[in-house]
Amino acid sequence: MAAGATTLVVIDVLSFSTAVSVAVAGGTEVWPSPPGEAAGALARRVGAELAVDRREITAERPWSLSPAALLAAPPAGRLVLPSPNGSAIAAAAVGARVLAASLRNRAAVCQHLAARGREAVGVVAAGERWDDGSLRPAVEDLLGASLVLSALAAAGAALSPEAAVTVRAAAGMTVEELREAVEAGTSGVELTEAGFREDVVLATEVDADAVVPVMREGGFVPMGSGKA
Asked: Taking the model in full, what pTM does it have?
């Protein structure tokens, strides 16, 4: 998809792209990576902190995929933030500008794309994985993609049939209805039952961030910074 697009928008609401929005807005440069040994090697190579599991944060290692933890932690300078979904997708994208979009920064990303005029934009709703590694569609990413595509359509973008159908997913939904759908979805329920409801709450704060994270030389930085 990246090979045929000028810009690729990666949407992983719970939690990668939400975490990127929070971290980049707070001054951290975020490097995406699949989980495992590759993430550690990347952190060593670029001189970055390596995010830990949500359950493993400490005073010395306060950075994880949890948006709530990132809000509470000091900026890391550079942070490798691995995940099997949005982060792995962003790391694998070659040939396009990559943006990270979530419900928190939807308006900022859409305004940026609309200002660029006509270009080929690919929107990826990352989804999740079942225990066997197969793809698990995620309602939160469908809704995030729907909101981004709706704004692009309103700005005059021509939509593919797949994009046009996706737009209908969130058509007419209020912010409260979006929040309820994300909280009640499989991913939202899993995080809540695991004790991370605050991550779901932060992920459903629509347009709370004005940052547009764009990947430059391997790391997400805010659009308008010296690197972007």
From this structure: 0.95
